[in-house]
Amino acid sequence: MRADGDLAFRVREPAVLGLHALKTTEAGMVFLSEDDCIPADDEDYSGFSLPPVQGLILAVGCSGQVNHILLGHMAVAFAQRLHAMIDFDGVLGYTPGNRTQEAANLARARALVASLPGTVREVSYDTGGGDRWIRHVGDLQFLSAWLQHPDFRLVK
Questions:
Q1: Residue 101 contacts residue 154 (beta carbons within 8 Å)
Q2: Residue 33, strand partner residues
Q3: DSSP one-letter string for the chain
Q4: 22 touches 66 (CB < 8 A)
Q5: Which one of 32, 44, 102, 154 is most buried, by most CB atoms within 10 A?
Q6: In what order do the strands lie in the sheet with 120-126?
Q7: Measured in whole angstroms, how far is the alpha carbon of residue 29 from the centre of its chain?
Q8: How far apart are CA 60 and CA 32, in angstroms?
């Protein structure tokens, strides 16, 4: 535990998450902390019957397939135990491009997300420059299906 109350740790036994073949030697440090910004005043949770009242931040300190898989399975474990939604902190399947490609890239991302079982909502928020953008928030069923998809990756 760090002085600020956050947790920082490494996963040594991924088998407890059902990841028997995952080699965590390449995995980064995992961080868990309270998110005191959820829900923020500028976020639109109107697509939910009950908006969140608290958030947890679960992150890994580096990228790579092992880290994405490990983080995804840890999020599943937390969501199961807490009966919580998963805020992906971005648009899944979206690849930023220039302004002319943005609409097509967003349409592809939305089609990908819609093709999977479970529930996903778009939460809009202020970007700071007077614009709005979205991020995906999904349920346990969606994340479980997304973990099995060949294009699975989390937002960086």
A1: no
A2: 57
A3: --TTS-EEE--S-GGGGT-TT--GGG---EEEEEETTSS-TT-B-TTSSS--S-EEEEEESS-SHHHHHHHHHHHHHHHHHHT--EE-SS-TT-----HHHHHHHHHHHHHHHHTSSS-EEEEEEE-SSS-EEEEEEE-HHHHHHHHHSTT-----
A4: yes
A5: 154
A6: 86-87, 132-138, 120-126
A7: 17
A8: 9
Are the CB atoms for 47 and 122 separated by under 8 Å?
yes
Q: Is the peptide bond before 39 cis (omega within 30 degrees of 0)?
A: yes
For the chain, residues with pLDDT lower than 50 are none
Q: How does pLDDT run across 1-45, given as a tens digit for each residue?
A: 566 779 999 998 898 898 888 888 888 899 999 988 878 889 999
